[in-house]
TrEMBL record:
One of its GO terms (molecular function) is aldehyde-lyase activity. GO terms for biological process: pentose catabolic process. The keyword Nuclease does not apply. GO terms for cellular component: cytosol. Residues 16-241 form the Class II aldolase/adducin N-terminal domain. The keyword Metal-binding applies. This is Rhamnulose-1-phosphate aldolase. InterPro entries: Aldolase_class_II_sugar_metab, Aldolase_II/adducin_N, Aldolase_II/adducin_N_sf. NCBIfam families: PRK03634.1 (NF002963). Pfam families: Aldolase_II (PF00596). Keywords: Lyase, Metal-binding.
Amino acid sequence: MKSILENRPGLAKEVNKVAEVAGYLWQKGWAERNGGNITVNITEFVDEEIRQLAPISEVKSIGTTLPHLKGCYFYCKGTNKRMRDLARWPMENGSVIRILDDCASYVIIADQPVAPTSELPSHLSVHNNLIAKGSPYKASVHTHPIELIAMTHCKAFLGKDVASNLLWSMIPETKAFCPLGLGIIPYELPSSVKLAEATIKELEEYDVVMWEKHGVFAIDCDAMQAFDQIDVLNKSALIYIAAKNMASNPTECLRNR
Ligand SMILES: [Zn+2]
């Protein structure tokens, strides 16, 4: 069967970015087993032929109504699929979905009937909000960056912008490339409505938010840029650990300079 990516270089490029990012997440140890999920709004690459494609799944309910997603299309990582597999075979470990006109249900249209991530309702709620705001952001990435998660096991870092200020102070690029810092969301059960609502609220102020003792949720123009923000923040956390291992308290050193 012909892939939806064939002869569509724009769409193929976006999906390939997801595959490249998925490989990085695995290499960094941030994507154990089927951990993490990525969704990208690909509506701008959809042509008339794609709009006419017959569904390859039954109609599935999103579980909520998202009025700004009418006529939208998304590439979504598949549920129970591994990032390391998606890196090599993005259309076997993810699929393209069409949001139906009721804005409350969807169908899979390509390439295979791979069911989207179980976090689809929260990802789509975030995309709905981004469109409502006129945001240029098209991608959302959830992953488990080791050192940033470890920080949330320390109560001292959970206060508003405590972690942001610490991470910014480690290397100047962090402030330059993640000017909004890291939002913190107190622990909630994965996939819960409460977590989705808290995430949408926190993303009003931040591009990257941390789910306490779980992982980050980042948004940006594409999957690569969302990954970059997480990578830059986690690099700062690594520098903090390295500095602490060398001697004293790194933030004390900064204050006494
Ligand atoms: Zn997770």
